[in-house]
Inverse folding.
């Protein structure tokens, strides 16, 4: 494994100290060989972007890291008075989740299938064009995706956030390397857009760990709201 993947796995494994159920996955498979990459290409309807092919052949063919942290706080007396102890206890929980599950070669054919990429063909022409020209490399639990927009650059295309409801379609990084480097600084949180938006640089429109408050984010991993 490369240093990036090793760090992603190591960080996720370290969260086990916060509870047995905190880590749902923390493993990465070896990179693809050249012949395995050619075999993968034969199963796809579109070309694999150069930066993604590089990741698969030098980093990992499938990175699977996922964490979900739940912190229980003492419910406020006012909350108990307005409902009941059980309900107040639920509202006293805070959660933080994420993990570097991405570039999973075993799922690329399904993610980039006709049934997925054609979802907006008869609904929204602009959205349809975007989906048709994007290679999806990460599925998000809320049914959104991260992809690489390959219409203008197949070698090192920008990362785009693909919203399944077509309300947030936008580039979030100029390259895959940029996204990986900045997301690592955010401890792989999300990457639902509402988790990333506080770290979107207002000048570039791209993810930038220095654009937000890292101390507030890191406090959430201790069960604090900020």
């Amino acid at each position: 494994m490369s240093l990036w993947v090793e760090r992603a796995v190591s960080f996720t494994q370290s969260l086990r100290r916060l509870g047995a159920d905190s880590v749902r996955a923390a493993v990465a498979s070896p990179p693809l060989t050249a012949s395995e990459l050619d075999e993968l290409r034969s199963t796809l309807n579109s070309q694999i972007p150069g930066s993604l092919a590089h990741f698969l052949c030098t980093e990992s063919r499938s990175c699977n890291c996922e964490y979900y942290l739940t912190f229980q706080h003492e419910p406020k007396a006012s909350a108990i008075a307005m409902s009941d102890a059980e309900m107040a206890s639920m509202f006293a929980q805070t959660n933080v989740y994420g993990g570097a599950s991405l570039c999973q070669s075993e799922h690329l054919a399904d993610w980039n299938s006709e049934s997925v990429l054609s979802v907006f063909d008869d609904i929204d022409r602009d959205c349809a064009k975007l989906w048709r020209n994007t290679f999806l490399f990460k599925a998000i639990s809320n049914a959104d995706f991260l992809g690489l927009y390959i219409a203008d650059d197949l070698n090192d295309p920008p990362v785009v956030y693909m919203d399944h409801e077509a309300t947030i379609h936008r580039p979030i990084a100029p390259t895959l390397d940029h996204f990986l480097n900045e997301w690592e600084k955010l401890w792989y949180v999300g990457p639902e857009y509402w988790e990333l938006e506080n770290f979107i640089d207002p000048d570039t429109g791209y993810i930038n760990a220095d654009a937000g408050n890292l101390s507030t984010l890191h406090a959430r991993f201790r069960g604090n709201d900020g």
User: Anything to note?
Assistant: The chain has a mean pLDDT of 90. The longest helix spans residues 3-14.
